[in-house]
Amino acid sequence: MQSGNDMVRNTRLIARLDIKGKNLIKSICMEGLRVVGSPIDFAHKYYMAGIDELIFMDCVASLYGRNHLSDLIKVSTKNIFIPITVGGGIRSVEDAVDILRAGADKVAINTAAVNNPALIEKLAKKFGSQSVVLSVEAKKISNNHWEVYTNGGREKTGLNVVDWVNQAVSMGVGEVLVTSIDKEGTRKGFDVDLMREVTKNTKVPVIASGGMGSSADLIDLIHGSNTDAVAVADILHYEREEINMIRESAIKAGINLMCHD
Amino acid sequence: MIKPEITVIDYGVGNLRSVQMAFEHIGASVKVTSNPDDILKASKLVLPGVGAFRNAMNALNDLSLIQSIKLAVKNDIPLLGICLGMQLLFEESEEFGLTKGLGLLTGKVVPIPDQSTDGNSLKVPHIGWSKVDTHCQNKINQGLGNGASLYFVHSYMASLIDDTNLIASSNYGGHVIPAIVSYKSIYGCQFHPEKSGRSGLMILKRFCEL
Description:
- Chain A has helices at residues 39-48, 61-64, 70-76, 93-101, 111-115, 118-127, 161-171, 192-200, 215-224, 234-237, 243-252; strands at 12-20, 23-28, 31-37, 53-58, 84-87, 106-109, 132-142, 145-150, 155-160, 175-180, 206-209, 229-232.
- Chain A is an alpha/beta fold.
- Chain A is globular, with a radius of gyration of 17 Å.
- Chain B has six helices and 14 strands.
- Chain B has an eight-stranded mixed sheet. Chain B has a four-stranded mixed sheet with strand order 6-5-7-11, with helices on one face. A two-stranded antiparallel sheet of chain B has the order 8-10.
């Protein structure tokens, strides 16, 4: 079910906002953080421009064992009315309650899920699978082999990405966000091979993140894999392309990236 | 114009803040409550909900809210169920074993099939923006374009409902998923209007205007 069907399935366009402290930041291969601006301003701008969803990711939270983004979410949800996923430093059911009560719709877990897979089941049972996103940081080891990293791309886990995704889905995650450490921030295109492998047998929606240089990269990704949603960051932060332009290019290429409005 | 007053039923599950923020954004004043008396005094009721059907019914029961919701509906107080809140309006659900619902609308809640009608595998939960097709005009969807997209997140859907109650549906893998239902003063949205951008806010506005 690849090309051919691309107009039938809806593809979502998601703006990913990586946060450090009070700032929206951007990194390259998850290192070398640069400050971009205020996350609330950027989030609102993308909402007004018709983005489908937002992801807020506190990329250093798990490293410092620090929580999280609930204040930012509380302010954002006063005038943003689209789905919001929040990740970074969520280690317990209580952490997730804070985030969801602040107005987020889904929590994304990575490090805590690897360290304590039972957390996935607990969260899915309490909030439903639809609220639990597995965030995976994937690094290519060899052809068709990617390893799971945690703590913002800093620590190896020895886990195989495809196996880990399957395990997490069977434990109850309702969606998977895959970030390619190799491609992140490079503007050299998505890791299409990675996404093809991950989406081959996955029964839940999969979001690809990392590497979008231009609309052409998104088109290659959707034609070449069964990816359900695309998370983009610096292409929007640095205004290389506008949301409407990305949609138009994708639609011309036969991809249903229609604006919801 | 008088500020519309919306009473949001808090039974301990789900994301009440988003619903509250959305109503406030369109100029309503919002009261969040788990008190049965507040429900009887409400001018408009919203039953939100994210999570599992049985937990939700148990919570409503533990808080003694079921009778007051039914009584409010009997008194023609407009009630809007959102997502799981809409599913609760029906007679029963198959989620984690058969569970009785509020029984305000005919129909039952069943899992979304994991196969499309043409035999391809279908991802469940159904997550994302889906177009809705209008079946009939109603106050609640007035001004909503046929084919507007709204944001859905669910693993279960209403089924065997009374066709005359179906206002709009979405097509997922060939399956007709009831998206907006209505009967008398009862309304339900399977999608999240509070997360569906401008189209969603418009539906909430229409509810305020009832």
